[in-house]
Amino acid sequence: MTTSPFPTAQSVRRPDRRAPAAACVTVLLWASAFVSIRSAGAAYSPGALALGRLLIGSLALGTLLLLRRERLPPRAAWPGILWSGLLWFGLYTVVLNQAERLVDAGTAAMVVNIGPLLIALLGSRVLGEALPGRLVAGMGVSFAGAVVVGLSMTGHGNASVLGVALCVVAAVAYAAGVVGQKPALRHGSAPQITTFGCLVGAVACLPFSGSLVSEAARAPLTATLNMVYLGLFPTALAFTTWAYALARTTAGRMGATTYAVPAVVVALSWLLLDEVPAPLTVGGGLLCLAGVAVSRTRTRTGPTRKSPAAPVEARHGTRRRGAARPRADREAAERETTDR
Questions:
Q1: Distance from C-alpha of 135 to C-alpha of 334, rounded to nearest angstrom
Q2: Cα–chain-centroid distance for residue 190?
Q3: Phi/psi of residue 207, each to 5°?
Q4: How far is residue 73's CA from residue 79's CA, in Å, rounded to a whole number?
Q5: Distance between CA 224 and CA 212 in Å, rounded?
Q6: How far apart, in whole angstroms, are the C-alpha atoms of residue 136 and residue 127?
Q7: pLDDT at 276
Q8: Please, are residues 295 and 62 in contact by the beta-carbon 8 Å criterion?
Q9: Which of 109, 115, 147, 293 is the most buried (most CB within 10 A)?
Q10: Among residues 257, 245, 303, 223, which one has the least CA distance to residue 48?
Q11: What pLDDT score was predicted for residue 112?
């Protein structure tokens, strides 16, 4: 008895629901990070909060790596680990912490959400990936949304405008870090690259260790618990569920899930922090999301009347009833008929 190498209809009709569930967990935790940063930032300075979060995340991820019995990443993976660790885990975290001292959590999430578009642009320049026209148009719309958000904050003073600018810097650092991380994933596993990238970011933030110690001594318990939460959940757990889901679906679908983060952040900040962005700020954020939506649309390419698509059975090597037989099969059938 032989087993077909192709998936059966029964297996195709049973999608793995654990991957979408893991993606939803990632979105929720990453959205909650904006709210926790806003809350913990009242007691911890940006650098100290970043260092505490990354140290806790590195400890949790390192424990996971030991349980998985994974070794050190190969030498070829370290350039990407260092690049992503310095830019994504280090610079991005510190700059975002400072930005959320100047703007509300929802606005920060909306502006930082241009990061996926910047990833596509940098990926085209650095990695040689395709850059479709719709993607360029989407980046333009999202940039216009970021400008609208900045203009909507001018009534609150220059500090708020600076906060929006810092969010843009954070988005650039995030995008550059992700593009630098992509080559490293060819040589090491996702837990390896994430763990040591987080550790590199923690080492880069060690100059803030004095501030962390002094501020932790007088910080309220709620602020410290928020810092611990940031390290364990949005950093360690969320990156783990992200890797789990990414291994079981396409990168495009996973990237699209992160576009729900600003909406979740606005809801959480309204419920937990009583912060609701101004209408013009929301409009600018919606422009950012609209640009992302434009960039994700693709022209459908499928079968036409002149060139119909081959049936699934034919692509799997199974001949349909009534289909044309190869010449050798026809000759064999004719000889069998003659013998009879």
A1: 57
A2: 13
A3: -55, -20
A4: 11
A5: 11
A6: 17
A7: 67
A8: no
A9: 109
A10: 223
A11: 83
The Cα–Cα gap between 47 and 56 comes to 14
pTM of the model: 0.72
At what angle are helices 261-272 and 279-296 packed, to 10 degrees? 160
Q: Please report which confidence band the pLDDT of residue 279 belongs to, taking 50, 70 and 90 as the band edges.
A: confident
Cβ count near 185 (within 10 Å): 17
214-258: per-residue pLDDT in tens?
999 999 999 999 999 999 999 998 877 776 676 565 544 555 566
- The CB-based long-range contact list for 29-32 (8 Å cut-off, 24+ gap) reads 29/233, 29/234, 29/237, 29/238, 29/241, 30/234, 30/238, 30/258, 30/261, 31/109, 31/260, 31/261, 31/262, 31/264, 31/265, 31/268, 32/233, 32/234, 32/264, 32/268
Distance CA 135, CA 133 (A): 5
Q: How far apart are the first and last CA of the chain?
A: 31
Residue 12 is predicted with a pLDDT of 44
Taking alpha carbons only, the member of 93, 320, 315 closest to residue 198 is: 93
**45, 101 in Cβ contact below 8 A?**
no
317 falls in which pLDDT band (50, 70, 90)? very low
d(CA 64, CA 191): 8
Helix (H, G, I), strand (E, B) or coil at 326: coil
Extract the tokens encoding 296.
């994700």
Which residues neighbour 87 within 8 Å (Cβ) at sequence distance 6 or greater?
173, 174, 176, 177, 180
| DSSP state, residue 68 | T
Cα angle 289, 290, 295 (rounded to 5 degrees) comes to 95
**The residue count for the chain:** 340
Spatial distance between the Cα atoms of 157 and 162, rounded to a whole number of angstroms: 9
More confident residue, 71 or 230: 230
Q: Can you tell me the distance from the alpha carbon of 93 to that of 168, in angstroms, rounded to the nearest whole number?
A: 13
The pLDDT mean for the chain works out to 76
Task: Calculate the CA 250 to chain-centre distance.
Answer: 12
**pLDDT band with cut points at 50, 70 and 90 for residue 303:** very low
CB 86 within 8 A of CB 189: no
Cβ–Cβ < 8 Å for 135, 117: yes
